[in-house]
Amino acid sequence: MRLTDITIRTLKSPAAGAVIFYDDFIAGFGIRVSEGGTKSFILTHGPRRERETLGRVGVVSLHDARTEAKRRLAEYTLGKERARTKAWDTEVAEYLAEVAAKRKPRTHQSYKYALDRQIEF
Fold this sequence. Notes:
The chain has helices at about 5-10, 60-80, 90-100, 105-120, and strands at about 20, 30-35, 40-45, 50-55. It folds into two domains: about 5-80, Double Stranded RNA Binding Domain (2-Layer Sandwich); about 90-120. The N and C termini lie far apart (about 45 Å). A hairpin with a 4-residue loop joins β2 (about 30-35) and β3 (about 40-45). The chain is of the alpha+beta class. The mean pLDDT is about 90.
């Protein structure tokens, strides 16, 4: 579907959930329409099909959203921005540090035990 200001205004909200309408000209660029009628510009990219919101319709114009989508796709293609992934050990350590700060020592010990068993396949 070719996204224009007129077609965006005529998009109807679904009865339940959300529907995405993709643009014909920019791969992965589209509009998500929720059941409440909220419309947001989105960009889906990468081999894992990560989806990110660029902004709400009305707050961000179609032209600005398209420009931002092109810029981000160029960055991903050129490798300027890498995926924000961390190693399992790093994530576990950060999570356990957060648990230690907010929970009782016994809870921290139980979580650590469970996560240590999870690592051993």
